[in-house]
Each structure stands twice: as C-alpha cells, then as structure tokens.
Amino acid sequence: MLDRPVSAAQVFDADLAAIRALAAVVPGPLPVALNAVKFAASIRPRKFVIEGGDETPVTMPRTAYQVVYPDGTVMIDAGMDKATHDSFGEGEPYDSDAFAQVMRALRAARMIVLTHYHADHVGGIVTAEDSDALATKTIATAETLSLMMNQPHRPHLKLPERRAEHFICISYGRYYPVAPGMVLIKAPGHSPDMQMIYLRLQSGREYLHSIDAAWNEANIRHVKGKAAPWVKEDVTAVMAQLRWLNRLTSDEPQLHILVTHDGELLDRMIGNGAVGGSLKV
C-alpha cells in the first residue's frame, strides 16, 4: 500500500458498508452463483499492461460474466463478435464456440447490464441480428448510451438514436441497486462512463468486479497503472481507484476482486470454485 498523502481530488472513496446495505434493497432471492467465460484474448507486452513492466507477453482475455439467480440469470456485459475483435488486431486468439455460448446466455438472460461503452463489452448486443430484442432487457446508463451514439469505440458500433431507445436507460448518483445482491458503482476513469459491480451470493460470498480499472491483478497489488500509449484514461481517477482496490485487498480479505482481463486470476477463481467456468444457458 502507498503511505504518501493524496489530495481530495485524488481519492476514490466508495463506501463498502453503504454498498453492502444497498445489496439488500431490491427484494427477492440473492444469486446462487457467478460464472464467467473467456471468448477471446489480446497479447500485449507487460510494459503496456503495467507501468514499469518488461517485454514479457501477457495474454489478456476478453471475458463476460453471468450472475445466476434461482429464477433466471443476469449477464454482465455482452462480449464482441469476431469482426469487432479483429478490428483491434487481426490474428489474435478468438474462440467462436465460447462467443456462441455468450450469445446463447445473452438471449436466455432475464437482464443484461453494460458496464461501459467499450467494444468488448457492448459489441455482442450492437452487432447481433436480434439487437433490438436484446436491448429491451439491457440496462445502460445515459452516459454509456450517449457515448455509443456519439463516440463509439469502433465506427461500426455507432448506435443510431432509434436503436438506443430500445435500451433501459438509467441515471444515478454514486450507487445503484440493480438486482438482489447486485449494486452498480460509478467509477469513471478508464472510460467516462465506467461502473464497477458489487455482488453478494446466498452463500455470503462477495465479489467486487473492478471491470477495467486494472488490466491485471498486479496493477492493484502494486498500485501501478496501465502504460499502453493508445489508452486514453483519466489517470488521476484510475490511480485513486487502484489505491481503493489495494486497500480492500488487505481490509476485506474475504472479498473476491475480479479483473476483466486477468486470465490467471480468473483461472484461480475457477479452480477454487469461486467462479464457474461456463455459462448457464
């Protein structure tokens, strides 16, 4: 952890106690499981993944998560199709069968939650043949929809206003209890619209999905940001979030912190049973 003082502008002070209380606001049974699948990957030198890294290649999976309730499922983000994946760098790993599983899970879900507008999080919905039908059960913030319409992460993902109207548009302050046991947390920095997600299961197991505040667990452990020249972030905001996440690792050791693009971390969680390795469809 860092001991040097920081100014108020550099503090991310999400209140975990308040978030836990909000997880009980929406009535209904708590979820029973959390599942995840890797459907693609980008391979980058470690020097781009974390400040001060070397040339060692790091495989960064593209992932989608599924929250399983007794009476249905909620998808966290929607993955992306192969054409969109190839627009980032043709030839990188892509698992068409895994993405087909994502699409089946999206269609079977009671609800879909988009965490931010980046292509690997929204592409599965925008490019789907039944995009409008998927959108009618998809929650997105007003900020996310505005970015999808006006500043799409990839030009072909530009969302026409008439299609944006199909989404469930929300606006909120700091936290939003979106489903039993599930709370959205505003965390702009990696993107202007990014949200983290807190989740509590019936078993009492807790998760904090940090989405893309970090690309690797090491970003949190060492409180070091990304160093990829193409990533345009609010660095001050991201570093404040990394400090907060770092404190949680020591203050809340029972809390499972998830990182979208850390494959080794996800493998460990699947191995110890904290996360299921396939999606329920």
Give a written overview of the molecule.
- The protein is an alpha/beta fold.
- It has one domain (8-271): Metallo-beta-lactamase, Chain A (4-Layer Sandwich), CATH 3.60.15.10.
- Helix content is 31%, strand content 23%.
- The chain contains eleven helices and eleven strands.
- The strands form two sheets. Strands 1-2-3-4-5-6 form a six-stranded mixed beta sheet. Strands 7-8-9-10-11 form a five-stranded mixed beta sheet, with helices on one face.
- The longest helix is centred in the last third of the chain and has 17 residues, at 235-251.
- The protein is globular and about 45 Å long.
- Mean pLDDT is 95; it is low at 1-9.
Query: Average pLDDT value?
Result: 95
| Proportion of residues in β-strands | 15-25%
- Order of helices and strands, N to C? HEHEEHHEHHEHHEEEEEHHEH
Uncertain regions: pLDDT < 50 for 5+ in a row? 1-9
Main sheet summary: 6 strands, mixed
CATH topology title: Metallo-beta-lactamase, Chain A
